[in-house]
Amino acid sequence: MPKQTLPHWQRIPLSALVSLAASLGCNNGGTDKSSLLELALPLFENGIHTELPPLRPETRRIFEAIAHGDMASALKLSATAIHTSPEDSEAIYARAVTLYLTASFGTARPLFEKVIRNGPSFADCDRIFYLYGMCLLRLGEAESAREALLVHLQLQPGGIETRIALGELTLQEGDPDSALVHFRFALQSLPSLENSNAMQSVAQAKAQAGIGKALLQLDQVEEAHKAIQLCLQLDPSQAQPYYALSRIYMRQGKHEQAKQAFDQFRRLSAQH
Questions:
Q1: Domain count, the chain
Q2: Helices (runs of H) and strands (runs of E) counted in the chain
Q3: How far from 232 is each of 198, 211, 240, CA to CA, in Å?
Q4: How far apart are CA 162 and CA 185, in angstroms?
Q5: pTM here?
Q6: In a shared domain, residues 92 and 210
Q7: Residue 219, SS3?
Q8: Domain with 189 in it: what CATH number?
Q9: Measuring CA to CA, which residue among 3, 32, 29, 19 is closest to residue 125?
Q10: Model pLDDT for residues 99-117, shown as the tens digit of each residue
């Protein structure tokens, strides 16, 4: 989604954003999560309309290592970066992302919060709210996770990953109708299957899985079955859709197929 441009008189320079963060107390480590997000939102709203600098080459190398699945190098590089520049938002962000992706959620959380307190300082920094929300979700803090994800959605209304995450969260809370809204929005925002790249196909699969689980909660078993089948055609490596498929087969009285789907769910779960 292209970024909108504010009129020149409405834009706040980067230096002013940093000063505003300090004056609001965003650098106070004692700020609770709700206050942190409330204070940060206007700063980042202005930040996405400001020409922020791209990530530095040394920071990009960390994310390149992550993209290639080389988490050992990412951990080493990010540790060096934060040791060299312990107050630098880029270094803290790269370290937080690396720790999050290696399941060190409790260690990643305060680093994400520190970057949020510091305010926007590099391009596409608004993505931190999605990652922070997912980190909180992994830590079992569902309501705080929702707040962070909604902040990201306010900054980037077309955020596909965020829509899927909110759909999953809403589904866990027993509201399949609201979950369907998020999943279907995500699906409609993606290109058609024939025009999708690998990452988009994974997102398609996640959205279809969510739709299938939501429809199953709504007792629309046949439609749920179609959605789960589409999901598994796109990405047969995920475990959870097979669990949903086993439940669908049980509802259809297909007990042998239900057992096979559940066994596949268990095999894939053991691999992750």
A1: 2
A2: 14, 0
A3: 14, 13, 10
A4: 11
A5: 0.81
A6: no
A7: coil
A8: 1.25.40.10
A9: 3
A10: 999 999 999 999 999 999 9
